[in-house]
């Protein structure tokens, strides 16, 4: 086979590898972001609950 065909095949393999690697990294990043947002949401819920307890105990 000609040399350029090997170069094309190697390029396709490298491109596929990079695509898979990037996809995994993006999924991990999205998971971390979702977890952080969930933690922030839970903290806000706890704070709101505490505020409501204070208001109800004062009233």
TrEMBL record:
The keyword Transmembrane applies. It comes from the Bacteria. This is Sporulation YhaL family protein. Residues 17-51 form a coiled coil. The keyword Transmembrane applies. The lineage of its organism: Bacteria, Bacillati, Bacillota, Bacilli, Bacillales. Keywords: Coiled coil, Membrane, Transmembrane, Transmembrane helix. The chain crosses the membrane at residues 6-23.
């Amino acid at each position: 086979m000609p040399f350029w065909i090997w170069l094309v095949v190697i390029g396709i393999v490298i491109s596929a590898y990079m695509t898979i690697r990037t996809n995994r990294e993006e999924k991990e990043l999205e998971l971390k972001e979702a977890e952080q947002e969930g933690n922030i949401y839970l903290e806000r819920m706890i704070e709101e609950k505490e505020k409501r307890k204070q208001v109800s105990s004062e009233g």
